[in-house]
């Protein structure tokens, strides 16, 4: 009974087998179809991912380019700053040198100023001495004049240049010359009193009253002669 039923079952199984065999490929096709769909979906996903990655790469590349450009600009700035610093250093060195030379010049000028002060003092002293000498001299001349007047029994015309004490004559250097102020001195002495300074050109300052006489053509030889003194 059991054997029989077993056999029947086997037969039944065999009967069902072709159906299974037909069913099997059907299932497989669906599976394959599903797998293909899944694969397709995966491919689409992968493609999307790839595109996204490409986009990201492109963005990063752009960012990198920008960064590289910034680095380049920064390097350029650094180089320029270095150059400027070295230029400033050179200028500073030059300025320091110039300042040193200027300091030296100022020192020299101060020294000269000190000398000038001494010179000025010397001039003032010389001027004082000159005026005191002139005073003494005039006094001496007056004494001589008085003596001569006593000798001659009355005042005489003064025929001597009161500056050099030489007698006036027709000799070129000893001709008496009248200045604008009315004072008379010899031609040679007149020549010694010519001033050629910034303010006065070809001008005689009278040794008696310091009045000015402007010389014309001929210089001291162009001054009027004091004929009265020569013809006596
Ligand atoms: Zn004279
Ligand atoms: Zn005078």
UniProtKB/TrEMBL annotation:
Instruction: Name the source organism.
Output: Caenorhabditis remanei
Q: Which Pfam families match?
A: zf-RING_UBOX
Its recorded name reads Uncharacterized protein
**Superkingdom:** Eukaryota
Lineage here is:
Eukaryota, Metazoa, Ecdysozoa, Nematoda, Chromadorea
């Amino acid at each position: 009974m059991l054997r029989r039923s077993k056999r029947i079952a086997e037969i039944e199984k065999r009967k069902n087998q072709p159906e299974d065999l037909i069913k099997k490929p059907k299932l497989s096709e669906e599976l394959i179809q599903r797998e293909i769909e899944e694969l397709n979906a995966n491919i689409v996903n992968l493609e999307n991912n790839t595109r996204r990655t490409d986009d990201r790469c492109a963005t990063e590349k752009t960012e990198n380019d920008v960064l590289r450009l910034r680095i380049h600009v920064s390097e350029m700035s650094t180089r320029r700053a270095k150059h400027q610093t070295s230029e400033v250093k050179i200028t500073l060195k030059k300025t320091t040198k110039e300042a040193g030379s200027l300091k030296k010049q100022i020192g020299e000028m101060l020294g000269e100023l000190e000398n000038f002060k001494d010179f000025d003092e010397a001039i003032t002293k010389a001027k004082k001495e000159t005026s005191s000498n002139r005073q003494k001299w005039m006094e001496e001349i007056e004494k001589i004049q008085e003596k001569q007047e006593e000798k001659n029994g009355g005042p005489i015309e003064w025929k001597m240049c009161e500056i050099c004490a030489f007698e006036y004559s027709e000799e070129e250097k000893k001709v008496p010359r009248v200045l604008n102020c009315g004072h008379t001195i010899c031609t040679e002495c007149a020549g010694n009193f010519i001033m050629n300074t910034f303010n006065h050109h070809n001008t005689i300052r009278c040794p008696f009253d310091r009045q000015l006489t402007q010389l014309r053509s001929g210089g001291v030889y162009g001054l009027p002669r004091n004929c009265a003194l020569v013809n006596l």
